[in-house]
Amino acid sequence: MAQVQIVDLDSDGLPDIVVCDALRDTVGWIRQSPRGTFTETTIASIAAPAHAAPVDFDHDGDVDLVIASLGVLMPSNNRTGSVILLENDGHQHFTPHVLADHIARVADAEPADLDGDGDLDLAVAGFGYDDGETSWLENKGGGKFEQHVLLRLSGPINAVVADINNDHHPDIVALVSQEWEEIWGFVNDGRGHFTNRMLWGSTNPDFGSSWISLADMNQDGKVDILYANGDAFDYAPPNSRPWQGVQWLENLGNLKFSLHRIAAFPGASSPQAVDVDGDGDLDVVVSSANNDWDNPQAPSLVWLENNGHMQFTKHAIATSPTHLDTLFAGDLDGDGLPDIVAGGMHISRPYTRMGRVTMWMNRGQKATH
Amino acid sequence: MAKKRRTNRAVAAIIVTALAAAVGIPAVTRIQLRSHVVPLPDLSSQPAAVRSHLEAERRAALDDISNDAAAGAYCLALHADMFFDAAERCYEGVERRDAANWRWTYYRALILDENGGGQPFVDAMRRVTASAPDYGPAWWRLGEAEFKLGEYDAAADAWRRAMAAPEPERGPGTPVRTADIPLAAYARLGLARISLSKNDAEGARPLLEAAVAAAPRSGSAYRLLAEADEALHRDSEARAAKLRADRLPQYAPYADPLIEALARTSRNSTFLLRQASEADLAANAAWSEFLIRRALGFDPDNPDVLAKLGRLLRTLGRNEEALDVLRAYHDKVPGDLQGLAQLGSCLSDLHQFAEAERMLRQALAGLDDAQTHYNLGVVLGATDRVGEAVEEYRKALQRDPYLFDAGNNLAAAYAREGRLADAAAELQKILAADPDNVMARANLQLIGRAVPAPPARPPARR
Fold first, then answer.
1. Residues 265-324, chain B: which have Cβ within 8 Å of A?
2. Contact, B390 vs B410, CB < 8 A?
3. Three-state SS for A192?
4. Is the confidence at residue A85, as pLDDT, over 50?
5. Percentage of the residues of chain B whose pLDDT score is greater than 70
6. Which residues from chain A sit within 8 angstroms of residue B402, using beta carbons?
């Protein structure tokens, strides 16, 4: 599973789950109806889908999906990537429209009006393999998009849109992995002209950058970056490395960011800031894609509890299933507490304790499986 | 109870003082030296080889407490066995007692480097370069760290020093580990990155041309050269550089002799496999195999080591040896379909087609990937089931249209069936996507079809 997320796809008031299954080449909808009952249907066959972004792309009042497609799951320099709009007809029948293809394998595509002309453009992480690029796709109207390359470095995993310099224009923050291990900011003048700035970089070419998400972690009005490094596929065995973990980059203003380690956590992936315990500060939930799974105590999902002073205590939520590379936190059962959905990617041993999509319902003090 | 502990401590202090007096080391110094020998980390989940390695090195450090080299060797063992926190504390102690030896600072800095770098790493590397200005890898690492902090001028200064520094001496160990790419080429890559970051492709280009001249197997240099050429709208040159890069090894950091020393010390399979992976097999196959076999010796129950050894032997064309290793892996991890597919492919290379087919079909039942369909096509073609081979090659191409080997084999299969027009069409498809595909070009000539002109080449540069 490349990505899971909680979204009310049919707008019936009950949150559903959308999954990108890169092993089965499908985008799935796990519909909640009635409350507490979940049923999966395939809504599109797409080659190695990596990310789905829900958005009303055509402004017709329903939820469409923008899909980032790798084309092939296994590493390749071939330009098999594409960005596909799944247009919702209002009854959850989805028609695919190719917005861009024959580009580097796409790991992420995020819609936003990047040039201020009122329509939705796309920030695109073209992971590729040794070749790759971060770019944006300018919506030229009539279903036509023009690619503008921002950075020709391989391995972009995320291209996330947010205003990082508080100038009210949407900027792009990209996590660039492979040997670069850098986080880049692309600062927008509001008209689609971007200035590149490396916000942070690791000197370790095997640092294993796996995921970023953006949140105002310290609630000071500036968007910070939550960052996990837990990838371990640079070389065998794909297990723990001493440097893997979760950190946040504090936005100090003027495009300066300061790195703070939150916790060591082997295989860290898909960190999300969320107030798990309802105490008003942002905690972090994070999964593990590559832990030392031969040890049955190795956690695959943890909650990093914030004490309100940006000091975090690690609580294991689960040790099974293993190989959880993606998660999403949201209130699935309507009790006001964030629950967690996680997806497994079982492409390395051990092939036991496997799970495709798993939910953990938050019952208050302690999450229960 | 508290009183009793105090009494015990007093007795212990008297014993330590007496022993120290006996060997001529002041008691206070001796206690300080002992405190530098950090406790063993939790070794409960470690293989026996790692446990005994660290226990022996710590014992040696304690037995010869005034010997800085013994204390340092324990730190190196912790480092090489990937106990970074303990190693860092250990190095701090040895730095204090053996301040004249810059290597302890360097090794401690390498741990900071692994943890991402940052200002503490820069500070440590500055101390190293002040003490050992001729050790080029320290300048190179300093350049990397400054660059990542956005300090481009400081990075450029450091990389220029690395470029001017001599290649460092290597130890006498065997097998020999040679530098796949010279240090100066890495420094040029760094300088080129600065130029590219400043949108100065013109400035980057000569640096990269010099880098590829000195390091013709550096895929990274060719890739950055392609980037510079693209920025300069030299499209055909960019394309040629990219194609060249695609055929070269991926990026690996400079083969630092001090890391080589760690590799020769290490008992940790992850550390050893990492070093094995970073070596270019063209020059360092023996080194890579040496490390993997060491890992297997120290961690014999680890299936990942077997898988790595099997892949290496396959790459080196030693399929008979690889077969035993891959079978051992399969016995340990029967559920790994990639492993099964690898085993099937190895059997195919050894012309054991019946068993190969069985393995590949078993793998495909759960895997259904392009490469395995292709490999099954090879087996079917080799056993004269051309029609079935065609189906498998088609399936491979459906799953990965860029798997040109499948396209070439599909064309060959069509030709065997007398379907020359279909064969030519397949080959034309390949050449449209990859005009440099030598196999497609040769096959097209073989079947007598018009071959498209090769892409224009840029004139040779002086």
1. 269-270, 273-274, 276-278, 302-305, 307-308
2. yes
3. coil
4. yes
5. 91
6. 76, 78, 80
CB contact under 8 A, B269 and A201: no
pLDDT tens-digit profile of B295-308?
A: 999 999 899 999 99
As to burial, measured by CB atoms within 10 angstroms (0-12 exposed, 13-18 middle, 19+ buried), residue A39 is exposed
Contacts B251 to A, Cβ<8 Å? 178-179, 205
Pairing of strands A301-306, A312-318: antiparallel
Q: What is the DSSP letter of B447?
A: T
ipTM above 0.95, yes or no: no
Say if CB B375 and CB B342 are below 8 A apart: no
pLDDT band at B454 (very low <50, low <70, confident <90, very high): low
Please indicate whether, in this complex, the C-beta atoms of A198 and B307 are within 8 angstroms of each other: no
Q: Which has the closest alpha carbon to B41: B31, B27, B51, B26?
A: B51
Strands A81-88 and A94-103: what pairing? antiparallel
Q: Where are the beta strands (DSSP E) in B337-425?
A: none
- For chain A, say whether B243 makes contact (Cβ under 8 Å): no
- Token pair belonging to B423: 């064969």
The per-residue pLDDT for B453 is 63
Contacts with B115 from chain A: Cβ below 8 Å: 204, 242-243
Task: List the single best residue of B141, B274, B398 to mutate versus A (max A Cβ within 10 A).
Answer: B274
Q: How far apart are the first and last CA of chain A?
A: 19
Residue A28 belongs to what H/E stretch?
Answer: strand A26-32
Contact (Cβ atoms closer than 8 angstroms) between residue B73 and residue B87: no
For the record, the structure tokens of A275 come out as: 């107030």
How far apart CA B269 and CA B280 sit, in angstroms, is 19
